[in-house]
Structure formats: structure tokens, C-alpha cells
From TrEMBL:
InterPro entries (UniProt xref): GlrX_actino, Glutaredoxin, Grx-like_ET, Thioredoxin-like_sf, Thioredoxin_CS
Alphabetical GO biological process terms: cell redox homeostasis
SUPFAM superfamilies for the chain: Thioredoxin-like
Name of this protein: Glutaredoxin
Domain (Glutaredoxin) ranges: 5-59
Record organism: Streptomyces resistomycificus
Transmembrane segments: none
One annotated GO molecular function: electron transfer activity
Length: 80
């Protein structure tokens, strides 16, 4: 694995919960950051999504991001 991905999420986001459970099942390491509790992360998510706080936004070790990715997209990006 190339490193841990960072998932920007909120507590109420169903898509976030789904992706987290899929990544847990596949043993994909990630760090979760709740953008409602971290203004700097919220600003990062806005920048990555054209001014919108769209979650889940996933940051990969190479600095790239995907918004609401599928498990297959995450696995492809990290080489799993």
C-alpha cells in the first residue's frame, strides 16, 4: 500500500458511512477528518470541489483527491 488516505466527512453523511464500511472491510487504512469540526479541512474540501463542501472527499498520498469515490476507484488509486 502506498500510504494512508485521508477521508474528509461529516457525521450525517450516508455516502461517507458507506465508503468507510467498505474500506474497513477491505482493510484499507484511512484517517477520517470531520469538516464540521475542522475549519481548515472544510476550506480544503471547498477548494478541491469548486467551492462546495462535498463529502466524502478523499485525499491520496500523492496529493490528488476524489469526491464521493467508489471503493474500486479508491483501490485503483492506491494500487490495492
Amino acid at each position: 500500500m502506498l500510504g494512508t488516505v485521508t477521508m474528509y466527512s461529516t457525521t450525517w453523511c450516508g455516502y461517507c458511512r458507506r465508503l468507510k464500511s467498505q474500506m474497513d472491510r477491505e482493510n484499507i487504512a484511512y484517517t477520517e477528518i470531520n469538516i464540521e469540526q475542522d475549519p481548515e479541512s472544510a476550506a480544503f474540501v471547498e477548494k478541491a470541489n469548486g467551492g462546495n463542501q462535498t463529502v466524502p472527499t478523499v485525499l491520496f498520498p500523492d496529493g490528488s483527491t476524489l469526491t464521493n469515490p467508489s471503493l474500486a476507484q479508491v483501490k485503483q488509486r492506491i494500487g490495492a
